[in-house]
């Protein structure tokens, strides 16, 4: 027996194929699909107040099942596993994930697929239960109210001091974001936190030189 034959035999014996039956494969994929559906529902509930992407939520189920199938194929045959590594190495995903929470759900779906494919469904269920509790608890925690954006247009530069004095009296927080001066006209953008936005708008409109006031909702992060 040559060295190459001895090496190949030793290599293949060290990575013996797993004995998979139709029943075990079906059970694995079924459990993965059920957990994927649960992740889909959890994503839908948690993101009820945000921009909901239906295609992304559906892909969570597909990712879970597909990942489980890949793991089953990899552990069933060493040749398939080597070919799978080469095939997946050329795949490039160019879709940018901007929301960190979307990344959490995507990694959750992939992890469930890997764990179930490895035959450790109990761990997948336990991880799903723990993540569910953590996500729902921290999602229910109250956070600071996001500030609003105040846009003020005035016919003279001197109006800025009056506007800022009014904001100091009526707002708990205020921060000037931009100041535009052109031809005697002032355009002021201020990030504010105010309980009585309607009263603030009326008070600013009544100031001498103020031509228009706009208050816009701010969906960004809380900065103060």
Structure description:
Helix 2 packs antiparallel against helix 3 (54-76), helix 2 packs antiparallel against helix 5 and helix 2 (22-46) runs parallel beside helix 6 (121-140). The protein has eight helices and four strands. 18% of the residues are buried. The N and C termini lie far apart (75 Å). Strand 2 and strand 3 form a beta hairpin. It has a four-stranded antiparallel sheet with strand order 2-3-1-4, covered by helices on one side. It is α+β, with helices and mostly antiparallel strands. It is elongated.
Which sequence of SSEs, written as H and E, runs from N to C? Answer: HHHHHHEHEEHE
* Largest β sheet strand count, sense and barrel closure: 4 strands, antiparallel
SS class:
alpha+beta
- Which spans of ≥5 residues are poorly predicted at pLDDT below 50? none
Count helical runs: 8
Shape: elongated
Biggest sheet: strand arrangement: 2-3-1-4
Rounded mean pLDDT is 78
| Overall number of strands | 4
Beta-strand share of residues: 5-15%
Question: Helicity range of the residues?
Answer: 55-70%
Cα Rg: 29 Å
Distance between the termini: 75 Å
Secondary structure elements and pairings:
Blueprint: H1 3-14, H2 22-46, H3 54-76, H4 78-88, H5 100-117, H6 121-140, E1 148-154, H7 159-170, E2 173-182, E3 185-193, H8 197-205, E4 210-216
Antiparallel strand pairs: 1-3, 1-4, 2-3
Short description:
With 224 residues, this protein is of the alpha+beta class. It has helices at residues 3-14, 22-46, 54-76, 78-88, 100-117, 121-140, 159-170, 197-205; strands at 148-154, 173-182, 185-193, 210-216.
